[in-house]
Design a protein that fits this description.
Mean pLDDT: 76
Radius of gyration: 37 Å
Structural class: mainly alpha
Shape: elongated
Number of helices: 7
Low-confidence stretches: 210-231
Helix content: 55-70%
Distance between the termini: 79 Å
Number of strands: 3
Order of helices and strands: EHHHHHHEHE
């Protein structure tokens, strides 16, 4: 039986790490020229009702939308309850009508109950739309509450108010059109205000003797380049 010689730790070849290249530094002498940025959009309104911030106005309209959504849910629940409990509802209405007309001889509440049931059956066709309207108004109200510092939410809510203003135009109601238009102006102005705060005031341009192509030609993975600028 033969045994092979086991290499000791000293005899084993050590792993040699490749030398890392130090970054090459290129110093650029030039002039940084600051130029005004593009013109910022002008806000349509400065204040909400001439005394409050625009963000406060957006929150106000958001709370109104949430209240409208809750009212739509209550109306849908009332219609559904009245349809399910139609017979008990008819008896209660008939008893109330008979009490109201107690001094009238030969009064019959049957025709009025039939008209009421007919109107209730027609209103049931709008139950899904009322429920969907409640969901939309409640959701957009929560979006408005987040639109104080969120530009994306502010843009969504401004678009929603624009479409609501278009809907108000077809109602031919002057007060509805006026209030909807003012609400859109407030939300749009707040959106422009947020966008304006995110835009830069000036842009800087380097005028020197080195270009981006020169840097790309001389740089590589093993020989990176660090560029410093002297104004």
């Amino acid at each position: 039986m033969s045994y092979e010689k086991i290499e000791s730790e000293e005899e084993r070849p050590s792993m040699v790490e490749p030398p890392t290249a130090s970054p090459q530094i290129i110093q650029v002498t030039g002039t940084v020229v600051e130029t005004p940025a593009a013109a910022k959009p002008k806000m349509l309104l400065k204040k909400f009702f001439f005394c409050m911030e625009l963000a406060t106005g957006v929150k106000f309209y958001g709370i109104l939308d949430i209240i409208s959504g809750m009212c739509a849910f209550v109306a849908a629940l009332f219609l559904l309850t009245a349809r399910v409990s139609e017979h008990a509802f008819d008896k209660s209405i008939a008893k109330g009508l008979e009490t109201l007309h107690y001094n009238e001889t030969g009064y019959d509440s049957g025709p009025e109950i039939q008209d009421l049931n007919k109107n209730l059956n027609e209103a049931m066709w709008f139950l899904p739309f009322v429920f969907i309207l409640g969901c939309i108004m409640t959701y957009m109200g929560t979006v408005a509450l987040r639109a104080e510092k969120d530009l994306k939410c502010a843009a969504y809510y401004s678009s929603f108010k624009f479409f609501y203003f278009i809907y108000a135009l077809f109602t031919f109601n002057f007060m509805h059109i006026l209030l909807s238009g003012y609400a859109f102006l407030v939300c749009r102005s707040h959106c422009l205000d947020l966008a304006t705060n995110l835009l830069p005031t000036t842009t800087s341009t380097l005028l020197g003797n080195i270009t981006k192509a020169t840097i790309e030609e001389q740089s590589s993975v093993n020989n990176p380049i660090v560029v410093t600028v002297d104004k």
